[in-house]
Amino acid sequence: MRALPIELDFSVQNQNQGLAPYFRTVIGNYLRDYCNARGIDLYNSGLKIHTTIDSRLQTYAEQAMDEHMRGLQKQFFEEWKKRGRNPWSDDNGAEMKDFLRKRIRQTDAYKVYAARYGEDSDSLKIMLNIKKRMTVFTWDGERDTLFSSMDSLAYYKKFLQAGFMAMDPLTGHVKAWVGGTNHKYFKFDHVRQSKRQPGSTFKPFVYGLAIEEGYSPCQTFRDIAPQFDLPNQPPWYPLNSDGTRGKGGTMTIRQAMAQSVNSITAQIMQRLGADNVAEFAHRMGIESRIDPVPSLCLGTSEMSLYEMVGAYCTFVNNGIFTEPIFITRMEDKNGNIIENFVPKTKQAINEQTAYKMIYMLRGGTEEQGGSALGLPREVRIENEMGGKTGTTNDASDGWFIGVTHNLVGGAWVGGDERAVRFPSWPFGQGSRSALPIFGKFLAKVYADPKTGIAKGQFRRPASGVDISFDCGRVDNLPDSVNLQNEDTWEIDH
């Protein structure tokens, strides 16, 4: 009698591989807290967790990010190389010479060597600069090299990071979650964990309050920056992206939002009040702290991509905020339901305001000069959709959030730290850095009928739309507005 050889096909589970690694980390942390609070053994109870992630949409989201970030990173390297300097900059745009020296103190290598040799010792400096073999990430695959701890820090700080999330605006189900560019080398999640200034993607909350207060999408304003008086400081004038206080022309607020004109957004917020704008954004689903300062109209308070996508869904869902969820059901090993997860909902704004804001957002893809016109033509034709770009004025963050009748998605791109800047404001603007991720994603989704996601129209209010969108004239202006007195916004240069 002869024993047969034992064949063992064994591999250690690797959380860096497979679909949705960032999401799996996020849900793993959530489940550990959930189970610990209820005395459930997460790993040995045979639990079945049903998530909202759609494998097809998740695949397309990861592909879209990979395709775009691969090319953008190459251009990023090349542009900074032309300038002969590193991408970390101070508020004046000058390279921060002590950036790496300060950041190395946060690394595990520094802490180990400092504990062994002392923080002020020459041995510490020597050990941080000794080269050793290591494998590093590149967009063309892993590469073996000789790097010191300082070399490694400098190398990885030059990489751009990104986050993307897509959600069903009606159910609150998160359909795709890409927290970064490579989970093995960059663990930080840029969907929910990261909070950054949203730039002009915050402007729909300013305009949303205006619409709620009775302003029409067709109301006209002059492109002139208002003056904000600050205590113990010179007056502040919000500049447009071209660096001017405005060119004096007249446009509708739909055109102003579509073209992301700062001066008109600032005029509206000055009239309505920063505190009221902050309250409106909180109603829409933003939970982060919002500072009611004049620059709020330009998106200076930090918030997460997770919050922003959820808040934009409120516009699509007839004014009902639906909390984003990523788990639908949890069962024990016998199939008994432990809990059904239902999103929290609330009527944040009325359906008339919500639909008018959808019309405002559609301006990004329909108005001349709209910031979302860079979306692929094949996703825009025969389809109602809108979107808003955002770029911080220090060129640290690029954003885009797009809305369709059955899917809302958002992308953020920037450095792991705010000090890591794009080489120029035009290079980093949301239409170039973030919008293509959503565009590529949506094109892939629409090309695959198996996703069940198709083009269509936004839901109209059940009672009909209470104003005309014929912007050849101004309709239904609030009583407090006197267009003949618009020259009161003129600034004495």
Oligomer: single chain
CATH-derived topology of the largest domain:
Beta-lactamase
CATH superfamily of the largest domain: DD-peptidase/beta-lactamase superfamily
Kindly report how far apart the N and C termini lie. 101 Å
Cα-based radius of gyration, to the nearest Å: 25 Å
**Highest CATH level, the class of the largest domain:** Alpha Beta
Overall mean pLDDT stands at: 92
Helix content: 25-40%
Order of helices and strands: HEHHHHEEHEEHEEHHHHEEEEHHEEEHHH
- The number of E-state strands comes to 14
TL;DR of this structure?
By secondary structure, the chain is an alpha+beta fold.
Structural overview:
It is a single chain. The chain is an alpha+beta fold and 493 residues long. The chain has 2 domains: 96-157, no CATH class; 160-327 and 347-489, Beta-lactamase (3-Layer(aba) Sandwich), CATH 3.40.710.10. It has 16 helices and 14 strands. It has a 5-stranded antiparallel β-sheet, sandwiched between helices. A hairpin with a 6-residue loop joins strand 4 (160-167) and strand 5 (174-178). The longest helix is centred in the N-terminal third of the chain and has 29 residues, at 55-83. It is globular, with a radius of gyration of 25 Å.
